[in-house]
Design a protein that fits this description.
With 264 residues, this protein is α+β, with helices and mostly antiparallel strands. The protein has two domains: 8-36; 46-262, 2-Layer Sandwich (Alpha-Beta Plaits), CATH 3.30.70.20. The chain has helices at 8-37, 47-56, 84-94, 138-142, 168-172, 206-209, 216-220, 236-244; strands spanning 40-42, 45-46, 71-76, 111-117, 124-130, 148-150, 156-158, 178-180, 199-201, 225-229, 259-262. The strands form five sheets. A three-stranded mixed sheet has the order 10-3-11. A two-stranded antiparallel sheet has the order 1-2. The two termini are 40 Å apart.
Length: 264
C-alpha cells in the first residue's frame, strides 16, 4: 500500500521513528503473551512442551524432513468406499469432534466429503477433500507470522505458537481446507495439540509419517487412497500416476497440490 504525504521529509522521518519503536513491542506482545499464557491444552499437557517434544524427537528421526521426498496422496473416487470411514479415522487420530459449544459449521474438519454433480448428465460422485499440501501454498504466502509453513518434504503445517488467529490463510485457501478453533478444548491427543484461537487443518498425519506409518485416512480407505513419495519414480503412487494419470483439484491455479485424484 502506497501513502502519499505532502510534507514528505518530516512525516517520513516521524513515521520511520514510530515504526522502529512500535515493531519490537508488537512482536514481544504476540510471542511473549503466548509464552506467558502457557496454553494448557489437556490435563498435564502444555502446548509449548508438546511442541518442543515433537521438535526434539519426531522431527529428528533418522534424517528428518528432506526435500528429496515429496509426500503425496492419490484418491481413487471410482472405488466403492464409504468416505465417512476416513473422516472417522481422522477424527479419532487427532481427537477432533470434541467441540461442544460451536455450531456445526464451526467445528474442525480435517477432511470433508464433497458431493459433485454433472449438471449435463446428472452423474454424481462424492470425494474427500482435505489440505492439498500445495507446493506453492497460498496459506503460507499470506501468513503474517510464519505460522503457516511448509516442511522440506512438502507437508503444510500450522505452528500454533505463532498463529494469532487472523484467518488470512483460511481466506487464501481455495480448497476451504482450514478451520478455526472457537472454544477451549479438553481431552486432546498429545500428538496433535490444539488451542483456542488457532487455525488448523490436515497435516497428513505427520506424527505417523515421521514414525514410518501411513496417514489414518489411508489406512481406513481400503485401498482407495494411496500414500507415498511423489519424487520416487519407483514408489507405488508414482507408478500408478505414470500409468493411469491423475488430476489435481483447481490445477489451473498452478499450486501443484500433493493430493491427486482419479475419476474426477
Amino acid at each position: 500500500m502506497t501513502i502519499n504525504i505532502d510534507n514528505k521529509n518530516n512525516d517520513e522521518t516521524t513515521a520511520d521513528s514510530c515504526s522502529k519503536k512500535m515493531e519490537p513491542s508488537r512482536r514481544n506482545f504476540i510471542f511473549g503473551s503466548v509464552a506467558a499464557a502457557g496454553l494448557t491444552v489437556a490435563p498435564g499437557i502444555m502446548l509449548y512442551k508438546t511442541a518442543n517434544a515433537r521438535t526434539l524427537s519426531d522431527f529428528s528421526l533418522k534424517e528428518g524432513a528432506s526435500s528429496k521426498v515429496r509426500w503425496g496422496m492419490l484418491v481413487d473416487t471410482t472405488k466403492d468406499v464409504d468416505w465417512n470411514k476416513c473422516v472417522d479415522a481422522c477424527n479419532k487420530e487427532h481427537g477432533l469432534g470434541n467441540e461442544t459449544k460451536s455450531r456445526d459449521d464451526q467445528k474442525t474438519q480435517y477432511i470433508r466429503i464433497v458431493e459433485v454433480t454433472n449438471k449435463g448428465t446428472g452423474y454424481s460422485m462424492s470425494l474427500p477433500v482435505m489440505c492439498q499440501h500445495c507446493e506453492s501454498a497460498p496459506c503460507v504466502d499470506v501468513c503474517p507470522t510464519g505460522a503457516s509453513m511448509k516442511r522440506a518434504d512438502g507437508i503444510v503445517l500450522v505452528d500454533r505458537h505463532r498463529c494469532i488467529g487472523c484467518r488470512y490463510c483460511m481466506m487464501a485457501c481455495p480448497y476451504k481446507a482450514r478451520s478455526f478453533v472457537h472454544e477451549v478444548l479438553t481431552d486432546q491427543k498429545e500428538s496433535t495439540p490444539r488451542g483456542k484461537g488457532c487455525v488448523e487443518s490436515c497435516d497428513m498425519c505427520v506424527n505417523r509419517i515421521d514414525h514410518g506409518q501411513e496417514p489414518a485416512c489411508v489406512e481406513a480407505s481400503n485401498g482407495a487412497i494411496i500414500f507415498g513419495d511423489l519424487n520416487d519414480a519407483e514408489s507405488p503412487i508414482s507408478k500408478i500416476l505414470a500409468k493411469h494419470g491423475g488430476k489435481q483439484i483447481r490445477a489451473d491455479l498452478k499450486l501443484n497440490p500433493g493430493v491427486h485424484y482419479q475419476g474426477i
